[in-house]
Amino acid sequence: MKIILAILFFTIKVQIAKITQTPELVISYEGISKIAKKSVTEIGCDTKLYNWVVYESSLYKYDSLPDEAYYKLENVYPKMRYELYAPLGVEFKPNKDDDKYNTYLKNIKGLFTKFLTTDEFKAVIPITSTSYISVQEGEEKHFR
After folding, report:
1. Do 80 and 36 meet the contact criterion of CB atoms below 8 Å apart?
2. What's the total number of domains in the chain?
3. Of 113, 118, 104, 130, whose CA–CA distance to 25 is shortest?
4. pLDDT digits (tens, 9 = 90+) for 28-66
5. Residue 53 domain flag
6. Element (H, E) at 83
7. What Rg, from alpha-carbon coordinates, does the chain have?
8. Could you tell me the pLDDT band of residue 1, with boundaries at 50, 70 and 90?
9. Is residue 69 part of a domain?
């Protein structure tokens, strides 16, 4: 049984006329986060080891959880960090990606196709184009 769940994280923001003359949807891929499948009560570690946690499908800083979450710690799952691997008996394996650009592009296209072109999403944010805006040379963000 796997005790870690990998989740892809994205940031989506709306900006007004920064590149075009219309509102723009900016999507960035933040990478993979690993979330323990065991709750903080099941793990039983020092709470100082929990920086970020998932509660009711949302990510929170542990010390900024909604008040009701502290009464339901069996439903709070820590985001993995190096210090949690040993208590869980899991070998630490860093994420290696030798081709970040294509990985980021593939994941952003996947998010766009699967979630942002749905009628439900378009009811909230009406997307008028399914194409990407070309970034002028010198304006692109560089990957580390």
Report:
1. yes
2. 1
3. 130
4. 888 888 888 889 888 888 878 888 999 998 889 999 999
5. yes
6. helix 82-88
7. 19
8. very low
9. yes
